[in-house]
Design a protein that fits this description.
mainly alpha; elongated
């Protein structure tokens, strides 16, 4: 996860066009989902192994008490995570992709009458936006 957050923006910034940014966002989103699954799997393995060790090493009364405490903690964490996800997850996904080119010719926008950007450019292009 740490490596992907370091390499993802680097891939986006070093790319030649917007497709690199789009690919970096897609890869980071995909990796985020798998990292969340791995984290939850590790958390469940921790709780299961802790409960198993308690049942192997302690008497029945102590094992029931510790298992109850760990189960309550696990249930509490699930409830809190559900509330956090309900508040923070977006209701609607938005993408930054353009489906069309908003500027047909940059030369016309920047004030070059021929549209080739070979003549003198002026700052009057800002009034065309």
């Amino acid at each position: 996860c740490t490596m992907s957050t370091m390499w993802g923006p680097g891939h986006a910034l070093k790319g030649e066009d917007a497709s690199y940014v789009e690919r970096a966002v897609w890869v980071l989103d995909t990796i985020k989902t798998s990292m969340e699954r791995f984290f939850l799997f590790g958390l469940m393995c921790f709780f299961v192994s802790s409960i198993l060790v308690v049942w192997l090493l302690f008497n029945t009364r102590g094992s029931v008490i510790v298992t109850s405490c760990l189960s309550i903690c696990l249930l509490w964490m699930y409830c809190k995570a559900s509330k956090i996800a309900a508040v923070l997850l977006p209701k609607k996904q938005a993408s930054g992709r353009f489906n069309f080119n908003r500027i047909a010719n940059v030369g016309y926008l920047m004030g070059d009458a021929s549209g080739s950007l070979r003549g003198n450019l002026s700052s009057s292009w800002a009034s065309h936006i």
